[in-house]
Records
---
Amino acid sequence: MSEVEKVYPAGLATNIQKPIADPGIEPHRVRLTDKSEKAAKGAEQQIAVMFGISIIGAIIAIWGFVAFPIADLADTRNNTLWMGIGMGLSLLGIGFGAVHWAKTLMPDHEVSEARHQARSNDESRAKAIEIIKTADAESGFTRRKLIRRSLYGALAFFPIPALVIFGDLGPQVGDTLKHTIWKKGVRLVRDSAEGGTAIKASEVTIGSVFHVVPENLKDIEDHGEKLNQKAKAAVLLVRVEPSDLKEDPAKASWSYDGIVAYSKICTHVGCPVALYEQQTHHLLCPCHQSTFDLADHCRVIFGPASRPLPQLAIEVDAEGYLVAQGDFTEPVGPSFWDIRQS
Amino acid sequence: MSTNTEQKPTTFIGGAANYLDERLSLGGVLKNFGRKVFPDHWSFMLGEVAMYSFVVLLISGTFLTFFYQPSMASVHYEGSYAPLKGAEMSIAYASSLDISFDIRGGLLMRQVHHWAALLFVAAAGLHMLRVFFTGAFRKPRELNWLVGFFLFLAAMGGGFTGYSLPDDLLSGNGLRIIDGMLKAIPFIGPSISSGLFGGEFPGDEIVARLYSLHIMIIPALIIVLLAVHLMMVIIHKHTHYSGPGKTDENVVGFPLMPVYVAKAGGFFFLVFGVLMAIAATFTINPIWNYGPYDPSPVSAGTQPDWYIGWLDGALRLAPSRMDVELLGVVLPFGVLLPLVISLAFLAVVAAYPFIEKWVTGDDREHHVLDRPRNAPTRTGIGAAGVVFYAVLWAGASTDLIATNFQMNLNQVLTSMQILLIIGPVIAFWVTKRACIALQRKDREIALHGRETGRVVRLPHGEYIEVHEQVDKYELWKLVDFKDYQPTLARPNAQGKITLGSKIRAALSSFYFEDRIAPVSKAEYELAHADHSPAPSVEKPKRKPRELVGKK
C-alpha cells in the first residue's frame, strides 16, 4: 500500500494485489543520434537548415510589406499572402528546429521526481492554526463582537454604490418596446440606402415582396436613433390572391385588395424575417427558422417563435399610395414579460 | 555574505546572471524549477495549444487596437474597397475595413486574430475533454478544473465580444439575438437589454462597451485565471498516464531545462506559425461582403462562430408557441428553456468532479491518469455530454444541412430534437459497453497473452492458436488501474439511513455495478499454472468472477 493510501482512507476503492511488481520505468530506447556521431552531425545540420529557413521567411515577410504598397485589392491580397507566408515560415522554422533539436540531440532518458501531497504537513498546519489564533487574539476579532459585526455591515454595504453607479448604463425602458414610428397616414416606402420611394398599390403585383420602412424614418437626423426606430418599424409587404387570405373578419379592413403588411421583426429573438415562399405564402426567419403563415395572419407554423408577426393595417391615400392606418396594435419583436400589459 | 565571493563570473552571461541573482535571487528559482520534470504525451499539448493561441491573440490584438476605432458614430466610407464607397456606416465598421484594405498586414492580423480565437476555444475545449476522460480532475485538482471551466467561459466571452466589434451585418444580427434573449428574462430582461445597449437596440453605445470588455476586462480575467491555472499545475505537478514506474508518488518525464524549454518553446512557434500560414491563405470573416449593420436586411444561411453554435442550436431546437401567460406576466419559454438548459449543462460540467468524488467517496490524491476504458461510467457520461453538445451544435446548422443534403428542414429539425434527448442515452450505453468490452480484452491479453494468428497442431491432433505472453511493461499497463465497488446505503451515527445516503448508494451502483476488476495476482498465477506447458483453448472462462453485479 502506498504512502498516499495510508494517510487517507481509500473510500470505496478496493486494493487488488497486482500480478507482478511494478517493473519500473521502461528501458531507454537508443536513438540513431545516440549511437552514431555522423547521425548526430546530420541532425545538427538539419536543425541549422530549419533556423536558416526561418531567416529566409522573415526576409520574405519584409519583402511582402515593401513590395506591395496599397494601391488596389490585388496589393492587399499579395501583401497579406506574402507577409503571412514569410512570417509563417519564420515561425515554423524556429519551431521545427527547436523541437527537432530536443528530439534528436537532447537526452531522452525519462527521469522520475518525487511528488508531495498537496496537504501541508502536520507541523505546518499546527503552526498556521497558531498564527491565526494569535492574530485573532491580538486583534480581538472574535472577542470584540461590536467591531466584527459592524465591519460585516460595512463590507456588505460598501459595494452597493459600485452597483448603483451603473444605473445610468441605459434609460428606463418605459413603453419604448411597445411603439414604433408608424402613424396614421404615414406612407410605406421602399427600404433603400438612398431614401426609398413611396409605393403605389398598383405597383404591387401578386407574389411580389417589398421591404418597407415608414416614410417618416428619413426625418430622423441621428444615425443611432434612426437605426433604433428602423429596428422596430421594418415591414414586409406582400400581395397575394385575396381569395388565398384566411382573414379574421375583424381584421379584414387591415389589408388592401390582397396586399398585406407584417412586421419584419421576428417574434422569437428579433432577426429580420426576410425569406418569403411564394407558393405556400410562408415567411421564414433565416436565423432560427421560425415559419409564419402569411395567409393566416402570420400564425407560427414551425420553429421556436411563439407569437404571430404583428400586422400593420394599411390603406390607400388619395394619390394611390399605400399608407398605414396607424401604429401596430401590439408590440413587435421578441416577447418580454410585460408585453401584454399596456 | 562573504562566502559567495568565491564564484567570480568570467563571461558576459556569467556576469549578467550574477548581477540578476544578487538582486533577485534567481539562482534559487532556477535551482527549484530548472530541472522540474514534465511527463510527455501528445494529449498534454492541447492545453499548450490553447495557451499559445491566447498569446497569439494578445500579440495580434494589440496590433489591431492601434487602428481600430470603437465608435458607432456614422461616416461615409472613403476607403479603397470600391463596392462600399460612399456608404453610410459606423466608424467601427469603417476602421475595420481600413484595417483590412488600407493597412499593410492589417488583414493578415485580423485573420490571424480570428483564427487564433477559433483555435483558442477549440483547444481549450479539447483540453477539457482530455482532462475529463482521463480523470485528471480528481483530487487534488478539482479546483483547477473549476479555474479551467471559467477560462473556457471567458474564452467564449472573449470570442463573442470580439466578433461583434466590426459592427457588420452578420455580427449585428448576432447582437440582436442576444438582445432578444435578454428581453425574455422575466421582469428584469428589458432593463438588462437597455443597460447593455444604452437604450434601445442597437443604439450607439454597444460597440464601445464590448470593446472595453474585449480588450480589457476579459483578457485581464483570462490572464489572472491562466496564472492561477498554471500555478496549480506547478503545485500539483503534472499528471501522467499509468505505466511502468509511474505512480501517485512520482512524476516521470523529461526535465524543463533543456528538453521542455526547447519542446514547449518551439511548440509556441509551431502554433503561431501554423496560425500565420492559415491566416495568410484562408479568408475568415469577410466583413466587406456583409456590409454595415442595418436592422432590416439579413442573409440566409448565417452561422455564428463555432463556439457559439451550441447556444444558437439550443435556440433553434425549442418547440413552437411556448409563450406562457401567468397572471399577466408573459414567460417566453421558447427562449427561456434553451437558456436554462444551456446553463444547467454548464453547471453540470463545472460540478462534475465534486459529484464523482461524492459518489466514490474516494479521498485519495490521484496523479496517475485513468485510461478512459478503465472508468466506463465516467467515459459513458462524457460521451453523453459530448453528444448532447454536438446535437445542439449541429442544431445551429439545420438550415444548411437541409439545403446541402436536399432534405426537408422541418424533418431535420425534428430529428435533431429527438436526437437531443435519445442521443446522449444511446451514446452513454454504447460507450460504457465498449469500455467494458475493451477491459475484457485487456484482461484476456493480461491473462492469456496476445493472439498470434499462428495455429499449430498438437501431437494428439488438437489444433490450437498460439498465444504470446506480453512483456512485463505491457502487462503492467494492462493491470495497473484502480478498482471500485458499489457502496451500500449505511445508517449514520443516529442509526438512520438518510435520503442522501440512499441517493449516494443508488449512484454508486449506477457507476460501479457493471465493472471489470483488474487482474489479480491469484488469477494471473492460476491462468499461468493452467497454461504450462502449452495453452489450452477449452478452458472455460471465469466470467462470473469478472463481472460483479446484476444480470
---
Amino acid sequence: MKIYVTGVGAISGIGLNVGEHLTSLASNKHGMGPVTLFPTTLNAVVSEVKCSNDKLKEILKLPFDKTYSRTTLLGMVAAKEALESSGIKNVNAFRTGFISSTSVGGMDLSEQAYVNFRNNPQQSDVQKFSQHDCGDSTQRIADYLGITEFTTTISTACSSAANAVIMGARMIKNGLLDAVVVGGTDALCKFTLNGFNSLMILDNEHCRPFDRSRSGLNLGEGAGYIVLQNEYSLYSNPYCLLTGYANANDAYHQTATSPEGEGTYECMRQSIELAGINPSDVGYINVHGTGTPNNDLSEGKAIERLFKDKVPPFSSVKAFIGHTLGAAEGIEAVLSVLSVTNGIVYPNLNFKNLIDNSNLIPITEYKQGLPLKHVLSNSFGFGGNDSSLLFSFI
Amino acid sequence: MKKRVYINATSAISPNGVKGEDNILHAIEPDYKDIITNANLRRRMSHIVKMGVACGLLCLEKNGDRPINAIITATGLGCLADTEKFLNSIIENEERLLNPTAFTQSTFNVIGAQIALLTNNHCYNNTFVHRGLSFESALIDTMMQINEGDSNVLVGAIDEATPTTYTILKGLGLIENITMGEGAQFFVLSNENSATNNISLKGVKTYSGKYNSAQQAEFIKNFLADNSLNTNDISCFITGDNGMQDSIYTDVNKLFPSATNKTFKDICGEYPTASSYGFYLAVDYLENHPPDTQNVLIYNAYNNTNHSLILLEK
C-alpha cells in the first residue's frame, strides 16, 4: 500500500509557516540568538520562535485570558497549516488520526510553577501543573483540529517525531486509519537547556555541524507536522510518497552514540530496504547533524559504511533552526518532503574544514530544481533511539 | 489485522493491595540486585526505572529468554522523581555545575532504552506517553508489529507515585476518594503459542471525551461487533472501577449481566497506565479457568475522559 504525503506545516526560529522556512533557508538566514523566553544565567545560543505566546494565540484565534503551554501553541500553528495544505476539509469524512510527539510537554509552565510549589506545596496554585503531561498538548491540538479518531503521543527524545510519522504510516498500512496528522512539538525551556548544558554538549557559539571545529549543539524550539493518507482518502495532489522508514536501537549508551553508529546504520539501511531501492538511488540526506563531536562523527561513519564511495549530497539544517528535540523530525520531515517534491537541497551553515579522516563535505548552498528521486532524513535520540524516513518523488 | 497475537509471558511489580501510611498503594519491590546485576547502572536508576527495567527483564526470563523483535513501553507521567530532582538542582545551584544523571534518566523512553542496552537489543524501540491511553497505544503498536511479521514483542507500562504528584492531583481534585497507586507490568506478545495456553489479545479500542451511558453502551457494542461478538459472549468483564466514578462503571456493568465482574484498582491503585494491571489480571483469569472458549473484556476510564476497551480470548 502507498502512503501519500499530502500536507506540510512548520514553525521554528526561521519562520512561522512553511513558506517563511524556505525563504530563510534560501537566503542563509538563521534563527540563532540569546535566550529571551525566560531568565537564565546560561550564556547559550538558541533558536527561538520569534513570536510571543499572546501573538501565537492571536494567530490561532484563541482567547487571551486562557493559559496554554507554548508547546501546545506551537503545535497548533504547525498542525493547522499541515491539515489545511492537505485539502482535508472535514476530518470526520475518513478515519483521520493524530499522532504527536514531544519531549517536554507543558514543562514551560511547570518549571515556573514549581519555583513557588517547592517552597509551599499546600498553598501553591497547582492548576498550573495541569498541562504538564505530554498527552495534554496532543489532546488540545487534536481538539483544535476537530480530530476525534485515534490520538496518541510518542516520546523517545530527539527521534520522537520520526517515530510518530512511522506509527502513523503503519496505522494506515494496517488498515486502522485512512489519514493521519503526524509530527511533533517542543517549546524551549529551562529544564532542557540546563539538561543539555549539564551534559556539556551545548556550543556557546553558533553550532558547526560536520565541521572539524564543531563543539556542540544549539537548542531550538518549534513544531512540524505532515499529513499522511491512503489513496482512497485523497483530496489533492500529494507532495510525495513516504516509501521507507525504520527505527533501530544503538544499545550502546543512554546519551552517547556508538563510535561506529550501529543504530544509525541500521535505521538508514532498513528504510532503504523497505522502499525497495538501492543506496545509490538516494539523492539527498537530511542528516541529524547536531554539531556535537560524537553525533557527527558516528553518523558520518555510518553514512560512509552504507553508501561507500558514493555518499549522496547531504546537509544539516541544525545551524538554522537549532536542535528542536521532540519537534526536530517533524520540521525536518516537512523540509525533506519539500526537498524531494521540488528538488531542493539546503545549505549546511558554518562548514569550513573536513572532520579528520573523513571525506564528508556537506552541501553549503541552497539549490532547487534538482532531479531528486529519493530523500532520506535522519533523527537520533537519547537511549540509542535512531530513526530514518525515506520520501520518494511521485 | 489478521495474525493472532498470543500472550506468552507476564510480569508485574505491583502494590498487591497494600496501602502505605501515606494512603498510597506503593509497589512491593523485589530485591533488584538479583535482577539488574550491573551495580553501576542500578545505582543511577530511580525507583520507576528500576521497577520498569526489572519487570521487563523478569518477563523476558519467563519467556525463556527468546529473542525479542521489538520493545514498546508506555508511561502516563514518566520519571517524575528524577524530573523533580533536576528541577530542584537547577534552582538550588542557580544553573551551575549540575549533575546530568537526573536529567538523562528523566527521559520518557529511558526504561525501554535500558532494557535494550542490558539485553543488547538493536530492534524497534518505542515509547507512548498519552495519559490513560499510553498502554493501549503500546498494545496497538505491538499488534501491528506482529501483523507485520515480528515474532516476539516485549510490551509494558510503568508509572510511579511521588509525594509531589499526590499533592498536585489532590489539589486538582482528581483523586478525591480515589487511592493513588503505581506499578510496572510487562508482557511478551507473540505470533506463536509458545506458552501453549492459547491466550491471545483480540482487539484494542481507545476514545476520549465525556459520554453518557447510552453512548458508552454503543461504543462497547460496536467494538464487540467489530470482533464478531456480542455482550453475551463475554465471560468476564473487568473494569477500572476506582470507587469514585462508579456511575460510569455501574451502567456499563449492566451490559454484561451473566459475566463475572472483576475490578483491579483496589489492588494496584489509580494511575495513568493502571489498565496494564487489568490486562495482567485478565491473563491470570484466563489461565485459571476451564479451556472452553472464554472472552474477557477490560473497560477502563481514566479521569472519566480517556476510555479504553481491551479484548482477550482463549
